[in-house]
TrEMBL record:
UniProtKB keywords: Cytoplasm, Proteasome
Activity modulation: The formation of the proteasomal ATPase ARC-20S proteasome complex, likely via the docking of the C-termini of ARC into the intersubunit pockets in the alpha-rings, may trigger opening of the gate for substrate entry. Interconversion between the open-gate and close-gate conformations leads to a dynamic regulation of the 20S proteasome proteolysis activity.
Classification via CDD domains: proteasome_protease_HslV (cd01906)
GO function term, MF aspect, one: threonine-type endopeptidase activity
Signal peptide: none
Cytoplasm recorded as keyword: yes
Gene name in the database record: prcA
GO biological process, one term: modification-dependent protein catabolic process
Lineage per the UniProt record: Bacteria, Bacillati, Actinomycetota, Actinomycetes, Kitasatosporales
Pathway membership, UniProt: Protein degradation; proteasomal Pup-dependent pathway
Domain of life per record: Bacteria
Protein name (record): Proteasome subunit alpha
Major location category of this protein: cytoplasm
Known partners and oligomeric status: The 20S proteasome core is composed of 14 alpha and 14 beta subunits that assemble into four stacked heptameric rings, resulting in a barrel-shaped structure. The two inner rings, each composed of seven catalytic beta subunits, are sandwiched by two outer rings, each composed of seven alpha subunits. The catalytic chamber with the active sites is on the inside of the barrel. Has a gated structure, the ends of the cylinder being occluded by the N-termini of the alpha-subunits. Is capped by the proteasome-associated ATPase, ARC.
Amino acid sequence: MSTPFYVSPQQAMADRAEYARKGIARGRSLVVLQYADGIVFVGENPSRALHKFSEIYDRIGFAAAGKYNEYENLRIGGVRYADLRGYTYDRDDVTARGLANVYAQTLGTIFSSAGEKPYEVELVVAEVGETPDGDQIYRLPHDGSIVDEHGSVAVGGNAEQISSYLDQRHEDGMSLADALKLAVQALSRDTNGTQREIPAERLEVAVLDRTRPQARKFKRIVGRQLGRLLETDGASTEAESSEEE
C-alpha cells in the first residue's frame, strides 16, 4: 500500500499564493492616484468593452487586475451589496471600508479553501470624500488581506516597480492632468527600465470627482478630453473640463 502524499499546510498556502501571484502578474498593471479634486484610475486596456474600472456606488469606485471573469463576479457582488445596504439603511451607510471588508471575507474564504483554486485577482476599492483628507483607498490582494493606501497604489503586472516610481514622484494636491501624466509615465516603464509609448486609445481612465454636483462622482474620461489632459497643462485643462460639464 502506497503512503499518501503529504504537504504541510504552510507549503500548501505558499503554493496557492504563488499560483495567484503569477496569474495576477500576467495581467496589465493599473494605478490609482489621489489628486486635488478626487481620485483617478489609469490603466492600459485596449478593450473598449471589458473595463478594469467601474462605479460601485455614489462615491465609490472599483479597480481590478487579473482574470476578468473572476473580478467581474466580485464587482457584481459589490454592486448588489451596496444597493441592498443603501436601500435597507441609508445611502451614507455604503462605504469603501464596508465594501472592502466584504471583498476581504470572500477572497479570504476562497484562498483558504482546499476545494477550489484561489482567485487570480487584486482589487482596489476607493471612496472620494468631501475633502482630500476624507479620501479612502484600499488594496485587496488575492488572500483577502486589506491594505490601507494613501496617495497612490499600483496592482497587476510589475506593480512593485510602478509603486516605487510613484512613491518617489507623487505629491498631494496634484492637478488631474499632472496625476494622469505621472500615471502614464509609470505604466509605460518596462521591467528593464526602458520607456515605451502608450497611445491614448489604449488607456482606460476614470475619476471620482468630488467637485461634480451630482451625487454620483464616478466619470470616465475618454476621447478629446483625455487627449487634452495628456497634452496640455493641468490648470487650463481642468478649467475646460468644468466648462464642458
